[in-house]
C-alpha cells in the first residue's frame, strides 16, 4: 500500500495545481490525504505544495499546520515543528557525499552517515534556502531567502547569507 501511495503522489498528486492556482484548494487536500501516511509522523492540517520531493517520507516528521513549499526537497531524517512556513525551492539535506578516502573517486564513496535536521516551531524558511546535515533551527526563527545554513540557529534569530550568519533578533524588532 505504501508503494502505491508513493507512486500516486510522485506521478499524479505532486503535479496537481499549486494552492494559489484554480483548483488549488482541492489539490492541496488530495496531496495531504495521499502523503500524510507516508511520513514517520504528522500533525494536523499539514500542507504539501506542488512539486515537493521527500523521498519515501518515512524519515520525516512534520508538525501541525506546517508546509513543505513549492518544489522543496527534503533528503534524509528531518523533523519539522508546528507552524513552519517554507518558501519555494528550499532544500534540506541530512546526508552528504563521503569524501575522506583520497585513494578512491568521491563518486564511488557513497554517502556520509545521516545527521538529522531539526526545525523548531513557528519558523519561516525563505525561498531557495539550503539547510545542511545536523543543523537545528530554533523556535520562532527566520531563515532568509537564499541562505545556506551550515550551523545551528538559536531561537528568535534571523539568519541569512552564505554561509548563514545571524543578522538580527525578532525580539528586538518586536520591541520597536
The count of β-strands is 16
Q: Structural class, judged by helices and strands?
A: alpha/beta
Main sheet, how many strands, which sense, barrel? 5 strands, parallel
CATH class: Mainly Beta
Specify the CATH homologous superfamily.
Hexapeptide repeat proteins
The termini sit apart by 53 Å
Summed over residues and divided by their number, the pLDDT gives a mean of 95
Order of helices and strands: HHEEEEEEEEEEEEEEEEH
Overall outline = globular
Low-confidence stretches: none
Count of domain modules = 1
| CATH architecture label | 3 Solenoid
Order of strands across the widest beta sheet? 1-3-6-9-12
Question: What is the CATH topology assignment?
Answer: UDP N-Acetylglucosamine Acyltransferase, domain 1
Keywords: Repeat, Transferase
InterPro entries: Hexapep (IPR001451), Hexapep_transf_CS (IPR018357), Hexapeptide_acetyltransf (IPR051159), Trimer_LpxA-like_sf (IPR011004)
Pfam families: Hexapep (PF00132), Hexapep_2 (PF14602)
GO molecular function: transferase activity
Describe the structure in your own words.
Keywords: Repeat, Transferase. One of its GO terms (molecular function) is transferase activity. This is Acetyltransferase. It comes from Cryobacterium levicorallinum. This protein is α/β, with parallel strands linked by helices. The protein has a single domain (39-175), classed as Hexapeptide repeat proteins (UDP N-Acetylglucosamine Acyltransferase, domain 1), CATH 2.160.10. The chain contains three helices and 16 strands. The protein has helices at residues 2-11, 24-35, 170-175; strands at residues 41-42, 47-48, 60-62, 67-68, 73-75, 78-80, 85-86, 91-93, 117-119, 124-125, 130-131, 136-137, 142-143, 148-149, 157-160, 165-169. The strands form four sheets. It has a five-stranded parallel beta sheet with strand order 1-3-6-9-12, with no helix packed on it. The protein is globular. The chain starts with a helix and ends with a helix. The model has no long low-confidence stretch (mean pLDDT 95).
Amino acid at each position: 500500500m505504501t508503494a502505491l501511495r508513493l507512486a500516486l503522489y510522485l506521478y499524479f498528486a505532486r503535479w496537481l495545481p499549486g494552492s494559489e492556482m484554480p483548483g488549488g484548494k482541492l489539490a492541496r487536500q488530495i496531496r495531504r490525504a495521499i502523503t500524510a501516511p507516508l511520513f514517520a509522523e504528522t500533525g494536523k492540517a499539514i500542507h504539501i505544495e506542488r512539486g515537493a520531493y521527500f523521498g519515501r517520507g518515512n524519515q520525516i516528521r512534520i508538525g501541525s499546520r506546517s508546509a513543505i513549499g513549492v518544489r522543496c526537497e527534503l533528503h534524509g531524517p528531518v523533523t519539522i515543528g508546528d507552524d513552519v512556513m517554507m518558501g519555494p525551492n528550499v532544500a534540506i539535506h541530512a546526508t552528504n557525499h563521503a569524501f575522506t578516502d583520497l585513494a578512491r573517486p568521491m563518486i564511488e564513496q557513497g554517502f556520509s552517515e545521516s545527521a538529522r535536521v531539526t526545525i523548531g516551531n513557528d519558523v519561516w524558511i525563505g525561498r531557495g534556502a539550503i539547510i545542511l546535515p545536523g543543523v537545528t533551527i530554533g523556535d520562532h526563527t527566520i531563515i532568509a531567502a537564499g541562505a545556506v545554513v551550515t550551523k545551528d540557529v538559536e531561537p528568535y534569530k534571523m539568519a541569512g547569507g552564505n554561509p548563514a550568519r545571524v543578522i538580527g533578533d525578532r525580539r528586538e524588532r518586536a520591541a520597536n
